[in-house]
Design goal:
With 244 residues, the protein is an alpha/beta fold. It has one domain: 3-Layer(aba) Sandwich (Rossmann fold), CATH 3.40.50. 34% of the residues lie in helices and 23% in strands. It has seven helices and nine strands; from the N terminus they run ααβαβαββαβααββββ. Strands 1, 2, 3, 4, 5, 6, 7, 8 and 9 form a nine-stranded mixed beta sheet that branches. The longest helix has 22 residues. It starts with 9 loop residues before the first helix and ends with a strand. 43% of the residues are buried.
Amino acid sequence: MDNATATIDPKEAAHFGALAADWWDPTGSSAMLHKLNPVRLAFIRDAIDAHFGTDSRTRRPLSGKRALDAGCGAGLLCEPLARLGAAVTGVDAAPQNIAAARAHAEAMGLDAAITYRQGELDGLGLGSFDLVCSLEVIEHVADKALFLGQLAAALAPGGLMVLSCPNRTLRSRAMLVEAAERLGQVPRGTHDWKQFVTPGELRELAAGAGLALGEPRGIAWSPASGLRLSDDLSLNYIVTAHKA
């Protein structure tokens, strides 16, 4: 695939690939993701029940459904989706992440439920999915519009998409870039504030890909409560989408 049609940024892939061995350590370089994951999963579970009409008490609401995690890292979202009953495919730009994801899934006895692939999403011939997730990824891709188009192409008719992204605000620059990286909460070089996407920008990108966004929910942080879903979108937000 030539550079004109590529969404993978080689520098970003190398940065995250270098962190692969540490990805599953909740006290390591990906500690913030481990804290963020339960918040994102709560939103995703509510979205699944609302969209597919499943009972919130059902342990495996994704039984019989295919789920894609685009930009899966070492599988922090793929494994919970598999436990919710989905046949999961995780795709990532970094081969080191895919190797770490496969090893962890095998150790957890989930390797039969999860398929991991490395490369450009639209070059892998994966078919369509009932659930498409891409969390904290769009700010790292080389071509945002093309990436949203690839996600839309992977979404089955009647399917559900979930996206999340840091918002490009002065508060996010102060907290997610300057403070978090300086204090070692996330590895240095993880965030380029200029690449963060506002909710309005994401809505426009989604519309260009034939998607309609729901109402975003903020992911806020406070010393007392930690990370939580909120009406405050200034740091980070998560949102559903479906084919328009």
